Every structure is written in structure tokens, then in C-alpha cells.
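To whoever is covering the structure queue this week,

Two jobs came back overnight. Logging them here so there's a record in the thread.

Job A:
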Amino acid sequence: MKAMLLGAVLATAGVGAAAQVVSGALQASHDSDSFNEQKQTLAYRGAAGWGLSAGALRYTAPAWSENGTTLAATYKQADAARQIDASAGVARIAQHDHATATLNYMQAWLPGTSLGVSAERDFINSERGIQAGLNYNTVMGVLDHAFTDRFNVGAAAGCSFFTNDNQRPILRTRWNYLIDDQVGLNAYLKTRSYRNTRPGQAEYFSPSHLNEASLGLSLRFAMGSVMNVSASVDGGQQRIDGDSQGIWSLAVGLASRRGSPVEWMVGVEATNTASLFTVRADSYRYTSAVARISVPF
């Protein structure tokens, strides 16, 4: 789930829905629990939006490692009124087979207002979660509303259901104000709040309550006709079961201009925000990198 954080900053590359596409992606991450994740994915998408992806996984920690594979059917559609990005498949790791699925659906209902749903099923990619074969299922309703041409608010509310009988109601918001359209400079406030019905799970981070808020700046601009540049930086406070600490995150991405014959992107992200899959929150650090290339034909 941490990988999803890169999406907001690196949403600068995309291939037209009318094209057939072959794509490849590499993703790697490291955290201060000495937990490492590597993913390699090869995918095909047809002109109608349907496709297939296959991938290899590797997870390592001190004196431990596991390799895995993934296979999924995919579907993607995007136009002015509707965006759909979905997948359904299987993953095998540590002698466990997992059904996996994602759905991100947004529909414009009124001028400036979109409603949707985001759903995900996957295995818990921590060392103990992988060994135990645990899964989670998350379903969230999503709202995005533009109050003016410069000010919009997004919110997502829902719940995660874990296969060890824990539940996690969650609320996320992002308040965004466009400062300068020329360089895509925005100021934003983002918040996250959740609780666990069975806190203290050994396989993943599960405090009784977590609340956090951060203020930040983001920008996105074209560097000539060659590439798009995007970046964000923010800082704030995270409160976990009564204890408070400062949090920060930053991300930088480069991507080809939309419509380029071969489309690509690279990005890096770093944060100290406690993630789902760490086993502790104090002095936590997480760094990830991603690279993707898409060749239409």
C-alpha cells in the first residue's frame, strides 16, 4: 500500500486508451525495519482496455527471504466522465496462494464533483504477514469536489478487514489550493485517521488509534518538450495512542510528455510516516523507487 503514495506525484505518464500497450515496471523499497521489497512486472493491454500482467516478487529481512509470483487480468478505461482501473488475479509466496484484486472507479456526477469507490484485496507484505499467509480487504467510498477553479477537496472513507479478525475503519482527506498554474504549484493539507478493533497485532502495525495531519507543497511542470517534472514535500504531526511525533514525506518524479511515442516514468519517495506493514512507529523510515516504460503499438 505504500507504493500508492507515489501515484499522486507521478501521475504524469499515460498511454491513450485506443492503443495496444506493452509495459514493464520495476519497484524497490527499503525501510528502517531492514525489510526490503522488489517487484518486477510485465504487462499487455489491448485497445479495448483489457489486459494481462505477470510479475516476480522478492522480500528480504535479516536471516529471511521469500520469492513470489503474480498473475492478473486487468482493465483500464479513462474518459472525461469516468475512470476505471481494475485487476483480478492470484499471488503465490511462501507456499501460500492469495486471491488479489483492485478496483478504482470514479464517475463525474455534477460539474466539479466526482464520486467513486476504491477496493483492494492483497496479502500483507510484512515478514510475519507473509509467513502467516494473511490477507486484507479494503473498501472505501471516494469523493472529489472542486469548490472553485483553484480549491478542491478529496475524501475517502471506508474499512479494511484483515483475515486475523481485525477491522480498521479509516478516513483520509486532502485539501488542495492551486497557487500558480504556470508551474503547477499547489499547497495542500492531508489528513489520515483510523482505529483498529483488535490492536497490537504482531504481523503488522496496528495501534488502537492513529491520527495525522500534514501541510505541504507540490509542483508539476513541463521541462521543454522532453519531460514532465513533479515533486512534493510535506510535514506535520502523527498521534498514535496518545503519543505525538513529527512526520514528513517527499517525492520526486520525472516522466515523458503525454503522447510521446514511448512513455516512461521514474520516481523516488521517502517518508517517516508509520505504514501498515511496519512493526513499529518510532524512528521509522521508508524509501522507495519505481520505474516504468510503456510502448504502444
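Job B:
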Amino acid sequence: MLQDKQSFLVTGAKNGKDVFIESIRDPDSDRYLYGVCNLVGGLWYFETMSDTRPIGLKRGDENVIYRLKEGMLYQLSATDVIYADTCKIVIREQKNIWREQNGSDSL
């Protein structure tokens, strides 16, 4: 989903029940802005944009969710989980999946 992207927004419904990944070029003005993700030097960073709605980060195998502070950059790894209100965004490394021309998996 994020392949060839340099940045994106994490937004949500005003009621806090839905979270969206949006293009930074065309954000929906009716949504709440949780934060911005940027790719810098091959690494993803997340910056929280407001303290008024809860947003957290669980690092890999740790059993702790850290509440993120507004304006700070947090480096993301392929095992992290971002929590925005009641939703979670799982960070995973993209793997290449080869498909045959007809759409079926190759053997």
C-alpha cells in the first residue's frame, strides 16, 4: 500500500471510530488529523499532530503502549503498531508477491 510513497497522513472520523491512511496531497478536510508519516533516508518516521486525541505506539514485542507527544518524531520499524483512538495500524514490511498474468499465484 505504501510502496513508492514518501509520506502519508493518518486521519480519523470525528467520532474516533475509524482511521484512514490518506495521501498528503489530497487530505479530507472533514477528518481529524492524528499525524504524518514521512520516509527519510529509507526509514519511516511518525509525527503526532495533536494531543487532544489519544495516539500510542507499541514497539515490536514489548508489552507497553507509549502515548505519543505532539510534535515529536518517532522512528517506525516493521514490527510496530500505532494505536489511534480505538483503532490500530500494523506496520509491516512489504514483500514482493509474484503473480501470473492471469492473476493466479505462480507455483
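Note for Job B: Residues 97-107 have pLDDT under 50 and may be disordered.

Please reply-all if you pick these up so we don't duplicate work.
Q.
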